[in-house]
Structures are given as C-alpha cells and as structure tokens.
Amino acid sequence: MSERNLVDMKVMVLGRDSMARRLVTSLSGCGMDVVSATDPAGAVPLLAGDQFDLVVVDDHMLEAFAACRDGSESWNTPVVLSMANTGTNWGLAMSLGVDGHIHDGMGHAEVCARLNSVVRRRGSGSCDL
User: Fold this and answer.
1) Cβ neighbours around 125 below 10 Å, total
2) In this structure, is residue 96 part of a structural domain?
C-alpha cells in the first residue's frame, strides 16, 4: 500500500449494532471511509479482496470471525480488536494475528493514535493528529 494518511483509509467495522454505530461515527468524523458489517460470514470475503486498509472486530464477534476466516484465503488487512468487556479470548485473538486493540471509553485521539500505530507497523501510512 502506498504512503497515505489514516484519514484517507477505508476501514471495515465488524460488530454489534451499538458498537459499530459508535465507531462509525467516531472514525467517519475524522474523514475515514468506514463500512459497517454485522455478519462475519459476509464480511470475510470482502476482506480477502484487500479493499480495506484496516478492520476493527468487536470482541463479541471474535469467535464467529475466526470461524469464517478459517476457510478463507489469508489477507494482509490489519485487524484491531474492539473490546467492551474483560472476557476477551486473548488466545483466540492472538491466533488470528490481531494487530492491536481499542476499548470503550477511549477518546477520539487515543483511538486514532492506536490505529495509527497499527498501520505504521504495517508500513501503511500515518495519521495526522
């Protein structure tokens, strides 16, 4: 991927309606192109096409996401886990190669900084804060 700002990136948010709405509002507010999905089975084929720069997965959908991803081709899209509780299955998250995490209560600047860190480690650009 060429060098670009995080605000120019296309992000998929895969999660429950309430979580997805909050993240879509926050990420769209800083200029990101955000697509929301609530069905992992429908989202995984889109991710395999490398048309997204980043995917944020709700921790409540992690097992479904893992099951759908098992049968798909691998892709290079960074995965960030959105955590709402302390019951996250970290073993599963790490087996999926989760690149980072965010959680409820983080401010906009911290979410942007964490996403920036993920894309920077992948050599995908940076975010202007």
Assistant:
1) 18
2) yes
